[in-house]
Amino acid sequence: MIHILKILLFILFKNVHSDIYLHNPRGSNNRLDEQGRERNNANRMFDSQNNNRGGYNAGYMTNQHSCFSPNANCDIIIQYMCDDKMRDGSDVNTIPNVEKGCQNNDCDKDFRFGMNEDFGYYSNCKQRERNKGLFTADQRLRGDTAIFTRQNPNGNRYAYECPEERDYYPYWHPTKWIDIAILTNDPKRCSFYQSNSENVKSRFYCKVPKNFKSIIPITKIECLKILDAQWRESSSHNVTDPVCRETQFTRDNHLGNSFGGQTPFFNWKLPSINSDKCVLRIRYNISTNDYDPFKSNQEKIENFSNKYGLNDQEANKRGYVFKSNPKLNTGEYFKIGKRGNIVQVYPAVEYDFVPNKLEISKNDYIHIQWTGSNKNPLNNDGQGLPGTDRSNIVLLTNKFGIKFLKSFGSENPSFYAPLTIDGDYRVNYPLKLDQNGFMRIDEQDLIKLAFLRDNQIGGSMDELDDAGTYFDFGTRKVTSSGVFHYMSTRNNNFSNRDQKGLVISYENEFFDDFIGWNGGVIDFRVGSISVPEGAVDQLEHFRVDIKTLESCLNRTILIKATWLLI
Known about the structure:
9 helices, signal, Protein_DD3-3_O-glyco, DD3-3-like, single chain
């Protein structure tokens, strides 16, 4: 029990900050199917703390503040939850907080309203004691239960989300959220995160009598003081511990790309899930790097003024104290340019294929599908009928590339589709047929991808206006190696620039993964390769070509990192 108290009071306090946008799968940011640019209700499902323009509307997240930089302690936590009662709903209003406000006095089954966590989850949170060992800065919390936090001092409600659980990780009370990954500035904390994840570690809670009206305690000692109360253990989710590694670098106050020109991403290997009603969430926990968040709590704050050579008296006089919006007397004054929030400009992205560069092996399978919308703001620039989003795929070749290869005597059809001279993509040349056998696409398949055949609901198809919003081409086997370009003809004018993609299909099977300071294992068909702890200083991309590996094994050559292609 002493160990649990230490965790509660001294470690588990990092607060959530927001300004993060989930782009694929498309994050909602509380948006339902509003036709305007702004979401109508920021309290509908959860507290994102993002501006109103974030999110994508229904078709039937990048972070603003820095990660893996010295300016902030950053953790990105990816989780999912499944429940047959979960739904997006059809009403933009927040689900009621009292049963009598719902049909048949049962909010869990009132499908008009969107719901992630259920009614009982929030009711318990509202009555459960908050963790008073958490750092609250200068915020005055207006209550003593778990709905009041530093980020939510007034106890505002966001559907049935529990604010304390949302703001702190790992959480000490049972939840239905299953951890996928923790991406952190400090990989040396990964063992702590993984061993304390609810995936593998049970939680305890106080079970009180049905008509208990007081605050529910969160410690065993206080729980057992209540007549007929029980201190119970809730088993873990009994799944594998979450992935934990470094975050990809992103700079402050910018929602743009990481190194390599790509949006930060995480590839999730889907587990076996016996439900078709699940929600994915991404949490962005940051705290300033001016103090050590894991050595501070409500009672003791590390004196960061010492970093600047100030004693306590001088630090207090000049404003070097922990509070919101401090006014510092730095001794020198300077001017900076106009400050703005880049989120106000582009919280989402224009049309894109995801991934727009796909690297695979021959004999792998690709599942092509996408979704559009009929509720895009009517005055947004774009091609086709105002208010509609549509996409299609046309495979491309390039006559300059063909001519270039033939000049070297190459007639190999599996490589001439992508090539250009000096990277020149000025002209698009659609393939008449799948000349290189990429996925054994015949003429009917080409028509289906280009004109959304079988998805047409009548009317004009010049710009795909009268096609349905969702398209599913199914799963296809990649039957040849090479590089293959494709585009969407619908989204290819000046206002949208272009929507293009690239598939690189390698002849040999390969396996890859991101591995950081903690090391890791790359599993493949004939074995695995271990990268030891400390072998690399930061997150690196490792790739193993199976043919190269088999050749090395056949010659009994010592396996070294030299042939792990980074």
